[in-house]
Design goal:
- It comes from Corallococcus exercitus.
- Pfam families: MbnB_TglH_ChrH.
- This is DUF692 family protein.
- By secondary structure, the chain is an alpha/beta fold.
- It has helices at about 30-35, 50-60, 60-70, 90-105, 135-150, 170-185, 190-200, 245-255, 275-285, 315-320, 335-355, 355-360, 365-375, 375-380, 390-405, 405-420, 450-470, 480-485, 510-520, 535-540; strands at about 10, 15-20, 45, 75, 110, 115-120, 120, 155-160, 185-190, 215-225, 225-230, 235, 265-270, 295-300, 435, 440-450, 490-500, 505-510, 525, 545.
- The protein has 3 domains: about 10-300, TIM Barrel (Alpha-Beta Barrel); about 320-415, no CATH class; about 435-545, no CATH class.
- It is built from 20 helices and 20 strands.
Amino acid sequence: MTRPASDSWSLPWMGLGLSSNLSASDVPHPYRLLDASPGLFDFVEYSAPIALEEAKAQATLFPEMWRRRSEVPVLFHPVHLNLWGPELEPASALAQLDAHARAVGSPWVGNDVGWWHAGGQPFPGYLYVTPPFNEAGVRDSAAHALHIQAGLSVPLVIENPAVLATRGGLHALDFMAKLHARTGLPLLLDLGHLFSHQLSAGLPLRTGLDGFPLEQVMEIHIAGGVVTRRGGRTFYVDDHTQPVREELFELLAEVLPRCPRLRAVTFEGDGHPPEVALASLRRLRALVPKESRPAIAFPASREPVPALTGESRPWALFDAGHGVTPATEDADPEGTRADRDFRLAVVAEQLDRDWPLTRLLLAATPEGLESFTRSREYRGLFDGLGRSLSHAFASWARKRVMAAPSDGVAAALSLEMMLPHAFLQEPPAPGPGQVALAEDVRLGAFPADLTELVFASRALRRHLTGRAWACGALEVSGLEALAQVAARPGPGPWRFAIRRKGTGFEVLTLPPEVASGLQGLADGPRPVEDLPAWLLAEGQARGLLRRA
């Protein structure tokens, strides 16, 4: 879909699509779902890194997508492509983006108008910062969008962003209409994102649609989310793993006939089990019948790229969302607190993959998490000075331990720092008649026994979460017990198992006799007869062993 001499793009009819991160471990698996129910949907819209080679390396379903793209067309929805923020995307990134889109035959690329990454580092959970809905936000977003479009040979379709804090005075749809008028770029209408703005602003769901240029909408997104209340306000949290709200199905049925140039409807069903995704797709299939429609011509944007002014103050909004500045100083204090709560929850979730003990000991409360997100280590991550969120937290935690020495916290930090090193080497697989540790399991040893601390962290999480369901608040004061347990480690040496869990690690405490018996497998496979029958049974029951 290169830009033709007639100054217009030819955009094909795509129909109904399902989004995917192209990971074989995620649900739903788009191709298995389609093979089981032919005709259920027409295309796959996938999110992946901008660079084609990086996407091939990271996306385990990329080979299948590539092989079947003539049978199941694709739309490329790139991750962390800045359509707002303090800096424009480098020319090298745009060249990679264009090459990727052309290679897979994506007729356009679309992305939310937001600030996704800084210093080469995506914000945790890909939670972008939404621009202010004012003239300054329109100008700076237009500069980003036209800069990106100038590097593309396919259209850039601009998507209305998710909203928690309402800033700037313009309605979300008015903001997008002005951005379209400024850039000439086609629109992607995300119904959940629209719902998020309407709830935050206290408006009926359909407010603003009558004056919105629906004839410029090329694609519609529908996805799951959670409606939640804080004080007197109601917010919509954009979480694709949740069920689709009934209001959004009804809105889609009303909007579809009003979008004469619509080319695609995408169900963002990330995290839905196949049987659940099947029900939603069947309902959507009734609204978007499988049919062939002729391609349409859409004028190619020839608008000049304006200068990026920075008047929309992206770093100020970043600081508001991470607790650097008080919420009371923002234009929407209550919305800013809701936005900050969501960001802190995502930061905590990501840290718990690598630092479940240290995070609870140093940053279990909102105040503790804000202490981290306000820190130089966290900010440095987005100034190009850090390697990852995990490394930034490790540096911050070390500084905290040095400032207020605590043997218990220091021990937890040391333990969790050593866990990744256990997986640096891949052990050999067992041969015939041999037994070995499971592929995702290693053995570890530590000079102090932290068995009780590992147990306490899990028991307290379960207890406090259960109480939160009953009382409506997380009683973090209950975590005082964790500090007591951390201060009384047992004598070492302590032997335990380590299991890789997603991108993180899990410590598995073991009875001493089991830990000692398995130690012989640390160096590699052993004959089955070398292990006592009770130990073999115990190790297999715990998922620690594999046989040839």
